[in-house]
Amino acid sequence: MTQTHTTDVVLVGGGIMSATLGVLLKELEPNWDITLFERLDRVGAESSNAWNNAGTGHSALCELNYAPMGSDGTVNPAKALNINEQFQTSRQFWSTLVEEGKIANPSFINSVPHMSLVFGKDHSEYLKTRYQSLSAQKLFEKMEFSQDPEKIAEWAPLTMEGRDPKETVAANYSREGTDVNFGNLALQFTHHLEEQGADVRFGHEVQDLRQESDGSWSLRVTNRLNAEDDLLVRAKFVFLGAGGGALPLLQKSGIPEGKGFGGFPVSGLFLRNSHEETASRHNAKVYGQASVGAPPMSVPHLDTRWVDGKRSLLFGPYAGFKTNFLKQGSLLDLFKSVKPDNIYPMARAGLDNLGLVKYLLTELTKTRQAKIDALREYYPEAAGGEWDLIEAGQRVQVMRKDAKKGGVLQFGTELITKGDGSIAALLGASPGASTAVPIMLNLVKKCFPDRFDAWSPRIKELVPAYGHRLNDEPDLADEIMAHTAKVLGIRN
């Protein structure tokens, strides 16, 4: 028997995005009723799960794709600065909630230096140029650069042991980097939401939704554990934050702003080493450069991971391809997502990214030995028997209409909101989790413009430097970054 349920806000998905928005809205409007639906039996089991992502606190300290070499031989720091500013916003939000006792403890974040490592003369010259460009900025002033193998070995000994001494290497190093368990953070956020009266329902999947004449939304929700408890939900505002599951629901919503969007799913594999003796000798997230034709998300990296208090090593990713949009989804997802309004943009984006197709085919044919060989480019003496191959979460890259090209493949995240502010959807991938707080602040500003001024004082309490660019205000940057580091128990 279908039951009816009325609420102010529906959050679809139990990952870090929905959890962040839920906590933010509860801080701004404590009396609002919030209902969160998660199709699985627990929080953060898809993309937010610790083993379904690399856990990098994305702040552009080590990710080379955020500061590529320009055609004129210079490196523009603008994108890297924007990513770092956003991560600082997330840090402020988290630290405020820790101070106020709304996050039980900052166990979700650990200090792990971030490092870029490249090989060969040309790449070394690029890295030096990148260092000169970024280190001149306040947010990157502590970054170090070296072409000295002994110094690099101090930073990350496993990367240099057994390496040919004649090989040209270079590295950028930032001690203030972090490793973040977004699944743990999502769990703590969700516990807090429940304590504040939010209705969190597991095993519930939103099947369909439509907007009513009064502007509210009706959602048909299936109880995957008990079909007799299916729901018809009426909500004033809906957020589609279900990772790869957001696109199908956006399409079902029928909003004009969602027309022309498609998605291309990419799965990933990592090699994981849980041997304590080996893991204890590496404390860094070491990022390299993506192969020619490979997407930014494929950048190889050798990472320290802290999960449930235990340190492990992770190397990858090795790209794969499945047609499901969620790790625990249907192989029909991609085919069902093709609609008359997005088939042309998807086709055009595909034609313009044949290099990606070639890259995926190459990855799919890699043997285990080929994967170990790739690992040994960054860890020459790696013992293959110590590494297990694990499957990471699904990522759905955004494909959208483009006036000039017809369609483009867009990396990163895309926030889509209806003109009346009654519904929003988040599509895309990295660096989404690290920038969840500024994304959600942008969402509430776009969807609730008539309330935003009244909310601003509380927002300033939650994010003290909101509205400021820390890079442009050195004294404020020092104050804010030192404070958040102290509260979260990480290096500044």
UniProtKB/TrEMBL annotation:
Documented EC number(s): 1.1.5.4
One Pfam family matching this protein: Mqo
Recorded superkingdom: Bacteria
NCBIfam families cross-referenced by the UniProt entry: mal_quin_oxido, PRK05257.1-1, PRK05257.1-4, PRK05257.2-1, PRK05257.2-5, PRK05257.3-1, PRK05257.3-2, PRK13339.1
Family matches, as SUPFAM superfamilies: FAD/NAD(P)-binding domain
Cofactor(s) recorded in Swiss-Prot or TrEMBL: FAD
GO biological processes: tricarboxylic acid cycle
Entry's family note: Belongs to the MQO family.
Protein name (record): Probable malate:quinone oxidoreductase
Keywords: FAD, Flavoprotein, Oxidoreductase, Tricarboxylic acid cycle
InterPro entries xref list: FAD/NAD-bd_sf, MQO
Reactions catalysed according to its record: (S)-malate + a quinone = a quinol + oxaloacetate
Pathway(s) of this molecule: Carbohydrate metabolism; tricarboxylic acid cycle; oxaloacetate from (S)-malate (quinone route): step 1/1
Residues annotated as transmembrane: none
GO molecular function, one term: (S)-2-hydroxyglutarate dehydrogenase activity
